[in-house]
Design goal:
32% helix; alpha/beta; 7-stranded mixed β-sheet; 11 strands; elongated
């Protein structure tokens, strides 16, 4: 007996064939198309800093094609069939994903986001390092850690040590300088409009992240805490390091607190340290992510519009 699954294909290219190449590819796999709906999302203007709202980068127009298909086997097999190599597009121009339509019908969903390079355009540690005059050195370590080439905890200790002696005022300054990813505010608002909780967990720093989480009215926020003595950064963190395991635990803890089943949680991240969090979610989404995360994620978005996540669950 066949089951109905949803193919969600996202593209930023102008299509001249009404998505016929996409439909033909799906049908060649043996899936039977029941219906299809292309949705075009308008370009987003930049939201400038005005002291009243968080700034957000502008974003290009994109199209999401929702295709309901009848498929005789399980969802994992259809994913592998439509995306045999997670690092390549099977149909040029399209990121093709498969989701269970039941997720859209869940009574309550939860969204959990990584912060740096996901909710936010920047990496907070790199912005702090720039003020300490060591941006290049720290950014290189950050990049390698996000690719999974370095132990996250050890790399964090090294990067934080370069901040020793910086005035505590630098934290507020960096927080104010950060910019929301295009579509971030729209995505958060779409979940909140249905009274669905939205959370953020980061390997960055709570003193930078907390003001942003308050402005977005997020239900939970967790990140590392920088140690401060005599109004200066000591070059260390205090408390448990927010690594991949803490991110995974945070998802489970917050889902329980909000009365949401873990298979009704959508988790979004970009780096190797988000892998366990995405694995624990009902739908793990790699957002413009490093290869290490794209390889095993349930879904991926490779356009710079975070609101594209909403199409996975009909919001």
């Amino acid at each position: 007996m066949s089951k109905t699954l949803r193919v969600v294909a996202t593209t930023q290219h102008i299509q001249t064939d009404d998505h016929r190449s996409l439909y033909a590819f799906i049908e060649r796999t043996g899936a039977r198309i029941k219906n299809a709906l292309p949705l075009t999302s308008a370009a987003l203007s930049e939201m400038p800093r005005d002291g009243k709202r968080l700034p957000q980068a502008g974003g290009h127009m994109y199209t999401t094609v929702l295709v309901d298909v009848a498929w005789k086997n399980d969802m994992k097999e259809l994913r592998q069939t439509l995306r045999p190599n997670p690092l390549q597009q099977a149909v040029p121009g399209y990121d093709i994903n498969v989701v269970d339509p039941a997720l859209s019908r869940a009574e309550k969903l939860m969204l959990i986001l990584d912060a740096d390079s996901t909710l936010l355009c920047q990496e907070a540690i790199d912005e702090l390092a720039a003020r300490a005059g060591v941006r290049h050195e720290v950014a290189e370590v950050t990049e390698r850690a996000m690719r999974g080439e370095l132990d996250f905890t050890e790399s964090l200790k090294h990067r934080v040590s370069t901040l020793k002696g910086q005035p505590v005022s630098v934290l507020a300054a960096v927080s104010r300088s950060l910019t929301l990813t295009p579509g971030a505010k729209q995505l958060v608002d779409a979940f909140h409009a249905r009274d669905f909780p939205v959370c953020v967990v980061s390997g960055g720093f709570i003193q930078v992240l907390e003001p942003i989480a308050r402005q977005l009215d997020l239900e939970f926020a967790r990140a590392n805490r920088l140690e401060i003595e005599s109004e200066q950064l000591t070059g260390s963190c205090v408390g448990t390091v927010v690594d991949a395991h803490v991110k995974q635990h945070s998802l489970q803890e917050w889902a329980k607190s909000c009365g949401v089943k873990t298979n009704n949680v959508i988790a979004v991240g970009d780096g190797a340290n988000d892998r366990l969090m995405l694995d624990a979610a009902g739908l793990g989404v790699a957002f413009n992510a490093k290869d290490a995360l794209r390889q095993g994620a349930d879904a991926q978005i490779n356009i710079h519009r975070l609101d594209a996540v909403r199409h996975f669950v009909n919001l």
